[in-house]
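ok trying again, last paste got cut off:
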Amino acid sequence: MIRRAPSRVFFNTEPAGETSKPHGPSLKAIEETPAWHTLSAAAVTRQLVSDLDGGLSSAEAARRLVVEGPNEIRERRPRSIFRMVVSQFQDFMILVLIAAAFVSGAIGEAGDAVIILAIVVLNGAIGFVQDYRAESVMAALRQLAALKAIVVRDGRRHAIAAAEIVRGDVVLIEAGNGVPADLRLVEAPRLKINEAALTGEAIPAEKRADPLADAGLPVADQLNMAFKGTVVTYGRGRGIAVATGMASQLGRIAGLLEAVEPAQAPLQRRLAVFGRQLAVAILAICAVFFALGIWRGEPLLLMLLTALSLAVAAIPEALPAVITMMLALGARAMARRNALVRRLPAVETLGSVSFICTDKTGTLTLNEMRAKEVYVSGERRVIVALQGADAPAKALVVAAALCNDAERGARGEVIGDPTEVALWRLAAEAGLEPETLRRTAPRLLELPFDSDRKRMTTVHREGDGPHVIAYTKGAPETVLDRCETEMGSEADLPANRGRALAIAEAMAEEGLRVLAVARRRWTKPPEGETPDEIERDLTLIGLVGLLDPPRPEAKAAVALCKTAGITPIMITGDHPATARSIAGELGISRPGDCIITGRELHGLSDAALAERIEGTSVFARVDPAQKIRIVSALQARGQFVAMTGDGVNDAPALAQADIGVAMGKSGTDVAREAASLVLLDDNFATIVAAIAEGRRIFENIRKFISYVLTSNAAEILTLFLAPFFGLPIPLLPVHILWINLITDGLPGLALAAEPPEKGALRRPPRPPGESIFARGMWQHILAIGLIMAGVCLATQAYSIHLALPHWQTMVFTVLTLSQMGNVLAIRSERESLFRQGLFTNLPLCGAVLLTFGLQMATIYVPVLNPIFRTAPLTMPELAVCMALSSVVFFVIEIEKYLARRGFIYRE
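nice, full thing came through this time. structure:
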């Protein structure tokens, strides 16, 4: 049946018997048949003991609901709040800090005890918030289910809660509905469903009702199925529910997500090992120090207090807080660059990423179809601008604008099917405004697109007379078969049809979605003709190739990734040809590179996949479980993997990856909740910027650890070595605790503002298993700690030799100021401070000046002298202290000079 414009043509496929057969017999047993798409509608009905016309009886549906359970995504049993709280305080380093707090309280340093406990509580609170938010992933999945659904029961339509649907229910869906269960479609007139959340496909899938022969088809190719959690964008359909709840595709994804254990960040692993090793070493040193003091005849109480103070000072209790603050500041910097961090450890994890598994649509591409190429008058033309084009090209643009249902929205935007929006834009960019064309050539008739014909035809008035013109667009193989001539060609089309089809195939192999456009003139509007009669004797105008084009900045970002030693891999649900084309254009793959489809992947063992994984740049037509396999195969080879995604289908892989990256604009709530990082602009280049920031943060954390451990080592060695040189205990407990208080926190935190080292993205990522002390760091800590201790002992020996009464104050001052020289010098591992510039990190300059001022206050403020057991120094004594404390700074500058010349390995 053909309807007059502005209405559209609809072929009546509504079943006549809404009150026909009552219902099928009661369900005794349903065999699990995963390949529902291969069965006919009648076979599915028999298998599920149902009836297409009358549906189930209410009694039978109620019975099945009891047996099978509700059509809901099962909620993972959440951890109790108590368990989440307790888990934050089970790390070894945290336990050591708690012990240090009790020690501080025991020796009368209540202030230190309070500070340490506050740090522990802050760290635990941040971890608790992150865990609590992670529990909302399953809740987000459940929200995808439609709240209401229309089913046929007892021969009548009923609106029921989607949770009450059972297998065998006949379900009706239409544009705007969420699909409430997995359905085997039995009617699908003009039905299109947006399955991006499950498959990653940007274009709505055109559905059909006939069975498909291949039992191994991936979800994206099961065109006679509608899946729970997807959305109907056009047309209507009728289907029989074949899977509900956790048995649906959405439920299987939820099951995968439930089974995934979140990966521990590399920094967390490194710090856990570091904390255990450090605590054991410090306790052993303090025990030896205490024993040596008693052996030398020192007072027992003094040695006990000094040893305990040394233990408290040596344990870097500020480390968790400073690192947390560094990560938080890094997260804020990333947010300014459109990367929202949901879990703080992800900030540093980015710096260790060696592989990025990225989705195509919306991340590497613009997520909007564009006309890229046309074929007219026997030649292919790349679209740059079509203004002033020849007659065939202009006719092609006019046809694309008129045979088109896209329209302008209330806010001026073009809305409609992505393909038709692209054709609208093609006309507008050629200077032919579609709305003007539609006024001058009004639509009279329409044959809407359907999946059987694979064509759409509209009939328009041509001029003021009775003549009309029909435009047809659709799949090349169906349109070309109905063309007799070609516009701009003297030969009849039958002689050139093979060439035109070959060109269409070549365009498709390059990743383009190809449409053929044709026309036919009529002396009067067709009346009574069937669609088959209207769509014949056509004249081919040309072909249009459409593509979701790459983002302009994506190619440079991919190149930068490779320069940084990071390998990008495209994992998409799209067609292999499209994936190969985009990957090649962006430089992700090179000619001859391997591409693996979901079907091939299904046949590979885990061992075979691990062998091929690092030589494959593109995976196409993959399902959610396969994405997890790909990520796991890379992790099994020791790689640190970032995974990007936007759909529900991506959530399990996002959770499995070392860092999951979700899309903020086009992504689903499920993907965002499963991810560690959310791209607010859906841009691959933003990931690269975030990786650069992650590397900067990791380098700054290393600098802080180097600084604080060097300082602590100097304190330990100064106290530990003094007796071996026949010197008295150089520092009192109050000195040790004061140095620890003013030198660890502010200067260390100011290192978070340190700009990135030059060439940070020209170096490969650090191996995940690499120690935090690798690449010369522990040698540096030991050497500079010894030098700093040597300077302090030299100060002590010099002062005692000259019988200076304030020798202990001088040692106290030299040790404090030496640490300030240390923090200034280690701002870069290779570059001189004089080249960097003193004021390129103003927060650090401020922290150093503040520390210097506080130290001077302990010496020259009378009320503080009895508290800190200090005395005012003379100007010559202070000058000596300043000179001796600068030794450490110049030693480190010499070390960096040797590293730049290649004599020391510091890369």
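cool. DSSP finds 33 helices and 28 strands in the chain. The chain has five domains: 3-74+143-259, 82-134, 266-338+689-759+769-900, 349-366+552-682, 370-547.
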